[in-house]
Design brief:
By secondary structure, the protein is of the alpha/beta class. The protein folds into 2 domains: 1-55; 57-298 and 342-423, Metal-dependent hydrolases (TIM Barrel, Alpha-Beta Barrel). Helices cover 50% and strands 10% of the residues. Strands 1, 2, 3, 4, 5 and 6 form a 6-stranded parallel sheet that branches. α1 (7-26) packs antiparallel against α2 (31-55), α2 packs across α15 (386-395) and α8 crosses α16 (400-423). The longest helix is centred in the N-terminal third of the chain and has 25 residues, at 31-55. The relative contact order is 0.13.
Length: 424
């Protein structure tokens, strides 16, 4: 059984000890002591950074980790290595992550009754496997379905596992399934993925718009989510769908993993006008730290060419069946392993945070890693590297309060607001 050390307590004690011992060392004279006082200063700085990170409620609002649970044997209670895996229970604690959203991701396929059933089963399989893994490891993690649950887990020094659903395909035009998934703990739905579905148009469907935004079923889904207290996730959906959602949703919305289009021109990212509209509605954009959404991709690289070939081979990720899905992810992982992409770094990702802050203030930005679904930076390979993002924010002059807002405060505000509106 793994015991977690209460890191917050230890680091506060160390900081206190350092503060006590520093004046003693500064009494000594000479060059050597100047050096040692400088060293003390820098270790005090790094401890202070660590404390700021640990005191923030750190929430990663999007990972695709549940896919690992159904693509073969994967034990969340064991520590793994990036790039093959970027999230597991021990590393969540090592990175001082308070909560993570596990997305139940299904790729969009042709809307046939057979495929609807398959997507529904797949989503439930991921959900059940995640719940079972949580149940097996109560000393490390706990299921969280509310902001209060997240804070309780943090107080018990456990990582909170929250559930989201990426792509509303498994709803299969059956509105009652929104509540069915809510009842099982799902707290957001990313309305679409890379292709159009019954709910709305996607930002990346090669065929273009089908509904001209949100469909009438999509409007009913948003209303039902508002009623239940589920967050509407606008990541992946088309610009028109985005504005339609803002118009019909009674509650503020989230972009669980989207970056800034002005800095990386991808249709999946949000334009400045969209970020402003999202903020006016009280919502939050969670910057997605996936290379291709942070910096324009090097289209001449072998990695890019091979991944593009793979995407086209499998019709924009529309797998034929379960076997093919497993094959695609195996090929995807092996391309990234043998032809590793040149990834942008944390500084480039924090540029996106800076941009949002300059545009709409500190209250509307957070982080959604997309780990285990393509996310990762050259110097942020898994959740244990999150403190480095905090270091970069501190270096750029963000205060502890600002950082607490970015890491989770802003997102929790939206989550609470969504709950409050549902209770009216
Ligand atoms: Zn995604």
């Amino acid at each position: 059984m793994i015991q977690f050390i209460p890191l917050r307590v230890i680091s506060l004690m160390m900081l206190l000890l350092l503060a006590i011992t520093m004046p003693l060392t500064s009494c000594k004279s000479g060059k050597q002591n100047n050096n040692s006082s400088k060293q003390n200063e820098s270790s005090a700085d790094s401890l202070q950074n660590q404390t700021i990170h640990q005191q923030a409620v750190v929430i990663d609002t999007h990972t695709d980790t549940p896919m690992k649970l159904i693509n073969g044997y994967f034990n969340l209670a064991e520590r793994h290595q990036a790039p093959d895996s970027r999230v597991d229970f021990p590393r969540l604690r090592a990175g001082d992550v308070d909560a993570v959203f596990f997305a139940l991701y299904t790729g969009q396929r042709k809307r046939t009754s057979e495929n609807y059933l398959q997507a529904y089963n797949l989503a439930n399989q991921m959900l059940d496997s995640t719940l079972a893994a949580i149940k097996r490891n109560p000393q490390m993690v706990t299921l969280a379905t509310s902001p209060a649950d997240i804070l309780n887990a943090s107080a018990q020094n456990k990582a909170a596992i929250c559930l989201g659903m990426e792509n509303g395909f498994p709803l299969a035009k059956d509105i009652t399934r929104v509540k069915a998934f809510y009842d099982k703990g799902v707290r957001y739905i990313t309305l679409s993925h890379s292709s159009n579905n019954d709910i709305c148009d996607s930002s990346t469907d090669k065929k273009g718009a089908e509904h001209n935004g949100l469909s009438s079923f999509g409007k009913a889904v948003v209303a039902e989510m508002n009623r239940l207290g589920m967050m509407v996730d606008v990541s992946h959906i088309s610009d028109k769908s985005f504005y339609d959602v803002l118009e019909v949703s009674k509650a503020p919305v989230i972009a669980s993993h989207s970056s800034v289009r002005a800095l990386c021109n991808h249709p999946r990212n949000l334009s400045d006008d969209m970020i402003k509209a999202l903020a006016v509605k009280g919502g939050v954009i969670q910057i997605c730290i996936l290379g291709g959404y942070i910096a324009d991709e090097d289209t001449g690289s072998v990695n890019y060419r091979k991944l593009e070939e793979l995407r086209l081979k499998y019709n924009n990720w529309q797998y034929k069946d379960d076997e093919e899905r497993k094959k695609v992810w195996k090929e995807y992982d092996s391309i990234n392993k043998f032809y590793p992409p040149v990834l942008p770094d944390i500084a480039r990702a924090v540029d996106h945070i800076d941009h949002v802050v300059k545009l709409v203030g500190i209250d509307h930005v957070g982080i959604g890693s997309d780990f285990d679904g393509g996310g990762g930076l050259s110097d942020c390979r898994d959740v244990t590297d999150f403190p480095k993002i905090t270091d970069e924010l501190i270096q750029r002059g963000y205060s502890a309060d600002d950082i607490a807002k970015i890491w989770g405060g802003n997102f929790l505000r939206v989550f609470r607001e969504v709950e409050k509106i549902a209770a009216l």
